[in-house]
Amino acid sequence: MAETKITRDMKIEQLVELKEDAVGYLFHKNIRCIRCGEPVWDTIEEAARKKDYTEAEIDQLLDDLNRLS
């Protein structure tokens, strides 16, 4: 089965279901999700933009998330 690609429009809940390590990674990147009680219904892009991520930073975030096991 092909691995699901992580994209900007993916909801945080879906990301965490696919990659449990994403919670810790996002926390390290100052994007709070399940652990901190913030709403998890944002997309990855929406959550990053709330933290003032640039286009390049969002692209890097997605690259990193796609590399997580």
> Mean pLDDT, nearest integer?
86
The DSSP helix count reads 4
Strand content: under 5%
Low-pLDDT stretches: none
Explain this structure to me?
The chain has 69 residues and is mostly helical. It has one domain (12-67). The chain contains four helices and no strands. The longest helix has 13 residues, at 55-67. The mean pLDDT is 86.
Brief overview, please?
This protein is 49% helix and 0% strand.
Write the layout of secondary structure elements.
Elements: H1 12-18, H2 22-28, H3 44-50, H4 55-67
List its salient traits.
69 residues; mainly alpha
